[in-house]
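Chapter summary example: a protein plus NBP.
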Amino acid sequence: MSEKADIALIGLAVMGQNIILNMNDHGYVVCAYNRTTEKVDQFLANEAKGTKVIGAHSIKEMCDKLKKPRRVMLLVKAGKPVDDFVDQILPFLEKGDIIIDGGNSEYQDTDRRCKSLKEKGILFVGSGVSGGEEGARYGPSLMPGGNPEAWPHIKDIFQSIAAKVGSEPCCDWVGESGSGHFVKMVHNGIEYGDMQLICEAYHLMKDVVGLDNQQMSDVLAQWNKGELDSFLIEITSNILKYKDADGSYLVEKIRDSAGQKGTGKWTAISALDYGIPVTLIGESVFARCLSALKDERVFASKELPGPGKIQFDGDVKEFVQHISKALYASKIVSYAQGFMLLREAAKVYGWNLNYGGIALMWRGGCIIRSVFLGNIKAAFDKNSQLSNLLLDDFFKSAMKECQTSWRKVVAKAVEVGIPTPCFSTALAFYDGFRSERLPANLIQAQRDYFGAHTYELLENPGKYIHTNWTGCGGNVSSTTYEV
Ligand code: NBP
């Protein structure tokens, strides 16, 4: 009888094909399957030619060719296709078999699938996969969560195909139910924030300081040797200096209207749902929305006054240094906010999240990979119960070192009328988070004044009282009217 496969992979598009070849490189026999089965033959005859990959033309054939417990990984379009495939595979599985969804599924869907499959004795895993085509082929960042009983059966495959930082794989068990997909969602949200922060630095260097593209590219290449060392800084340095066939810089010819697929928006929505101020990711999503109003902006640019052209008369090198520090400080705030959201979701869902492990999973293989994630990992290694990254000694001293520059950059941007939504919101969050007193006492008074919503006194927290502010209202407080 022919050799049985270690794992089956359904979905022969860009991610599936490359993950299969990656698994093959690491010695695993993979059985490939796809809804359109001709793609199985095409794949075996072309990309997988000469490998140990085998194919199947039906779900039954695929399941029959697997070692037990059976491991079936899906890399198909998220949503209904995943449910449809789960329904089709189930009749051919036995108790203890494993289904892994590596697509960009919503974490609530993964939660639901985990629960319903557990009742049937099937172990379900929802794994974030990041790194795009190249990552899938040579080492992605993998964020698996779901039924923990599945982990010992998939650990070796997952950790061997994942990206490595030194000898450490960028893959570890994230936690229960939908946590792997939640972590992937927050990763994508942070990616939106990182990208917008770099765009704001570019805008300031170009339109305030007046650097040309080659100079900006050189600055970023320099930044990439220090604390900002990251994949996104590296590629932006390359993008800025890239010249079109006519010798002009290509990036300057690209329409300034950003697209999005929704994962940044999902992060912002869950931040609102859980009441966590993930302001930087929220602003980065809104910045893309504002950019997309291109026609309205073109019209408004001729109608609405700004401060007028202000000549930059400062020290260029010094201001560029201030921008790098503003970027670093804002980035720290963004990650602190992302981890606050993870902590809250873990509380709501009862997940036991491995925060240092998450930093390590993002350290390599994915779009937000950076040296800085090593510092985050170190912070959680030092104190796994760390309540907020900003309170770790390393990050505390980074904020101390950066804050003056950060304030100068935001103030300059406001003065000259350059929008820096993420630099600014990060600073506002930082100042709010470090404030013993905020003006929310007045909000409470206003709420009580117009809606009898009650308030607590500083000296007596937990006891809610109502004041008849006008002398005309009654003394009855509201229980239902929420503003
Ligand atoms: P796609 O997201 O383009 O999905 C293509 C696969 O889904 C094909 O196998 C296709 O089968 C199958 N499929 C579709 Br489309 N509709 C289906 C349906 N109604 N029923 C059954 N199968 C269906 O592929 P991808 O870009 O390789 O991504 C795979 C997953 O990984 C997605 O969830 C994606 O969001 C996620 N992801 C992608 C990237 C990336 O960089 N592309 C990165 C990280 C994660 P067919 O061949 O018969 O049409």
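Key point: The chain has a mean pLDDT of 96.
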